[in-house]
Amino acid sequence: MIRRHLPFTQSVISALFLLTATAGLAADRVKSVPEQTVDTLEKLSGGPHAGFRANHAKGIVVTGSFTADAAAKTLTKAEHLQGAKVPVTVRFSNATGVPTLPDADPNASPHGIAIRFTAPSGQATDIVSISYDGFPVSTPDDFLALLNAVAASGPDVPSPKPIETFLGSHPAAKAFVTAPKPAPVSYATLPFYGVNAFNFTNAAGKSQYARYRIIPVAGDKRLTDDEAKKAAPDYLIDELKARLAKAPVKFKLIAQLAKDGDAVNDGSIAWGKDHKEVLLGTLTLDTALADSAAVEKKLAFSPLHLVDGIAPSADPVLLARPAAYAFSVGRRAGK
Ligand code: HEM
Questions:
Q1: Which of these, 144, 126, 111, 139, lies nearest to 269 by C-alpha position?
Q2: Which helix (H) or strand (E) holds 28?
Q3: Within 13 A of 298's CA, how many CA atoms are on the CB side?
Q4: Whose CA is nearest to atom 36 of ligand 1?
Q5: Is cis: bond before 48, omega within 30 of 0?
Q6: Alpha-carbon distance 51 to 299, whole Å?
Q7: Which residue of 33, 55, 94 sits with most ligand 1 atoms within 8 Å of its CB, as the best mutation to test the pocket?
Q8: Which of 17, 117, 241, 297 could form a disulfide with 288 if both were Cys (CB 3.0 to 4.6 A apart)?
Q9: Which pLDDT belongs to residue 273?
Q10: Mutation test of ligand 1: which of 35, 37, 58, 128 has the most ligand atoms closer than 8 Å to its C-beta?
Q11: How far apart, in whole angstroms, are the C-alpha atoms of residue 75 and residue 201?
């Protein structure tokens, strides 16, 4: 009996094994590009690092207010841009998923700013921007390919390494990687750029595309290479706390208007300086949160957390971001 049943039992086990293995493979195959991107970001940072963001892991949360300029109404009917002073929560960050990355490390750039405005009705909306005017690639697939190329280009890999091949065929990525990005004196002396365009609609129903620019009132100030080498690992966080203890930090929020023929769906192409700009208002930051580390774990910003009067462009990178952020948020919350 036993002998007769053995092959049957074995084939059931084999079938189960095959099923499990195939299910595993199928699960790998159906992972979306945003999920694979989060996997690769975690891998590149030596993570996953429990409780931290898969990208822009190190940061500081501060609060303050935003007051819209009268010109903002000409562009959009968005509630937080109609003139009333509204509270903001802002997170400054370093690039990469490494929570302990020294602030002056070249990989910490582009730095990030994430701003949450809460309008009088209680409606909130976010802006999530970086300190470089452009993205390395035009599509989420190419972003994943870029990160995978970096991951496959260790010191022992012979030339041409995958990253060299990728940069050779993607000029915007090469420009992004090779552009000098000197470490800032302060988060308060760094300009930030929205990169992805949005479609703004005013009360009269007029719509136009624009990109955000967030310009420090204190000016764009950078460390020299020598200063950067000597900078303390957390100098940006410590400097911002000390600065805010003395005086508020201000940024001008500006909309850079698209001209006819501008690439509104491709963040890898900067629009240049000869564009009309509309001053949307002034960001005044006054408080570094003592419980920043706890607050940032609960905060989840999204570039598509929008309100009536501001709509997304069809930029595929912009449209893919919320899904990637959601995977990261879920994982850092332990889901
Ligand atoms: C396909 C393209 C992109 C992917 C896959 C991606 C992925 C991510 C992920 C996974 C996070 C962590 C989210 C969290 O845990 O809350 C993140 C954060 C962030 N990303 Fe992106 N990102 C992309 C494009 C961009 C672009 C175009 C910008 C700016 C223009 C940007 C700026 C930021 C900033 C500033 C943060 C930190 C937000 C915070 O402080 O909570 N990202 N990104």
A1: 139
A2: helix 2-30
A3: 5
A4: 56
A5: yes
A6: 12
A7: 55
A8: 241
A9: 79
A10: 128
A11: 6
Query: Which structure tokens are listed for 134?
Result: 């452009």
Minimum-distance ligand 1 atom for the alpha carbon of 325: 13
Spell 114-140 as b/e; 16+ CB within 10 A means b: bbbbbbeeeebbbbbbbbbbbbbbbbb
For the chain, 335 residues long, the average pLDDT of each consecutive 10-residue run is 37 38 52 97 96 98 98 98 96 98 98 97 97 98 98 96 98 96 97 98 98 98 98 98 98 97 96 93 98 97 98 98 98 85
Instruction: Answer for the pair 58, 45: CB distance below 8 angstroms, yes or no.
Output: no
Beta pairing partners, 199: 209, 311
Single out the residue of 298, 186, 202 nearest to residue 257, CA to CA. Answer: 202
80 as an active site residue: the answer is no
- Cβ neighbours of residue 224 closer than 8 Å, sequence gap 6 or more: 182
Q: How far apart are CA 15 and CA 78, in angstroms?
A: 58
Q: Which atom of ligand 1 is nearest to the CA of 318?
A: 27
State phi, psi for 194 to the nearest 5 degrees: -75, -25
Q: At what angle do helices 162-169 and 140-151 cross, to 10 degrees?
A: 150
Q: For position 8, what pLDDT does the model report?
A: 37
Show the tokens assigned to 54: 């898969």
Q: What are phi and psi of 201, to 5 degrees?
A: -125, 130
* CB-based contact 117:265 (threshold 8 Å): no
Report the pLDDT value the prediction gives residue 15, as an integer from 0 to 100: 39
Contact at 8 Å (CB) between 283 and 248?
Answer: no
Residue 46: helix, strand or coil by DSSP?
coil
- Dist. CA 103 → ligand 1 center (Å): 18
User: Quick one: how many helices (H) and strands (E) in the chain?
Assistant: 10, 10
Q: How far is the CA of 29 from the centre of ligand 1 (A)?
A: 24
Q: Whose CA is nearest to atom 3 of ligand 1?
A: 321
* Residue 156: count of CB within 10 angstroms of its CB: 6
